[in-house]
Amino acid sequence: MKLTHRIEKQICIIAFVGNLTTDAVEEFKSFLTPFVEDEQLLGIVINCRYAVTIDSTGIGVIVSTFKQLQRRQAKLSVCALSDHYTRLFRASQLDKILNLHPLESEGMESILQSFPTRASNDSQTEEADTKISISADLEKALNTIINTGAQRAATSLSELLMQEVELITNQVQIMSRGETRQFMSQLPHEGYIVVVQNLIGEFEAQGVLSFPLMQGRNLIHTLFDLPPTEESEFGFNEMEAITEVGNVLVNALGSSVGDHTEMLMDYQVARLIIAEQLIPLDQKTLYPTIYCGATTHFQATEIDVDGYISLVITKPSLEKIETQFKTG
């Protein structure tokens, strides 16, 4: 079983790939426990989109999680169940106590509607995001940083894989959080494999690399010459390989920022998420946030895949880029 999580709007979204059965429930419970006990969280969404098998013990853990959250007036949503398991949950009348939703976003919205004050605060935060103004100089600087980073990543990947790798970025999009949410709502509701890495120090941001699930898998198999597989789960080697690609790309973006602005930064460990969203909308920051990204074509031997790279930058770091880029 592969477990991932992210936190958005004080809701923990947990996704798993594989079987939620007798031999996996202890691992699943241990993973859930910190989030069930976290008083700052409004609730948990369990995304079952990539579940292979859920047996009675797995269902028991989900019901137990619901009861534990209920004790502290938090909420649980279960989303993206297959038709088979949706019928099973309904036949067992579990839909009477559990919030079942076809989409992750609907599961989150159900939890937020139980906390209208929090939803109002989120609306105010998102409105503040739309008020960030970008000067022509800053827009030019961000375009330069993204494109330079992509070129450096292509060079690094070519050396790592000993084959020519080309990254071609489209026009960079610069969006507020609200605009990013609207942009993603227009995309197909498909799974994404997302690598996230935080940059800390004088410059604070989050680097993100995203692929549609199967395209990302095909890219990794071609680049790293991994044997084909019919398994529905991502294997350890696949996870390591795609995380390495994300790590190379985010480090290249960071070095581009550093060279153009002379700001010092460090990199936290990259993490991998299986999600319905192209970009995780982390709203824990108190600052308005800009999402700066571009569709990127990965071209190498026998491969041509579209991914998406982005830097999620808070307003204080944006101001540093504008000042340092002008004087650098």
Summarize the structure.
This protein is an alpha/beta fold. The protein has helices at 25-37, 56-71, 83-91, 104-113, 116-130, 136-161, 177-185, 213-223, 236-261, 315-327, and strands spanning 2-8, 11-20, 43-47, 51-54, 75-79, 99-101, 166-169, 173-176, 192-201, 205-212, 265-267, 271-275, 289-300, 303-314. It folds into 2 domains: 2-114, STAS domain (Transcription Regulator spoIIAA); 131-327, Chemotaxis protein chec (3-Layer(aba) Sandwich).
Task: Tell me what the structure shows.
The structure is a single chain. The chain has helices spanning 25-37, 56-71, 83-91, 104-113, 116-130, 136-161, 177-185, 213-223, 236-261, 315-327; strands at 2-8, 11-20, 43-47, 51-54, 75-79, 99-101, 166-169, 173-176, 192-201, 205-212, 265-267, 271-275, 289-300, 303-314. With 328 residues, it is α/β, with parallel strands linked by helices. It folds into two domains: 2-114, STAS domain (Transcription Regulator spoIIAA, 2-Layer Sandwich), CATH 3.30.750; 131-327, 3-Layer(aba) Sandwich (Chemotaxis protein chec). Strands 7, 8, 9, 10, 11, 12, 13 and 14 form an eight-stranded antiparallel sheet that branches. A hairpin with a 2-residue loop joins strand 1 and strand 2 (11-20). The longest helix has 26 residues, at 136-161.
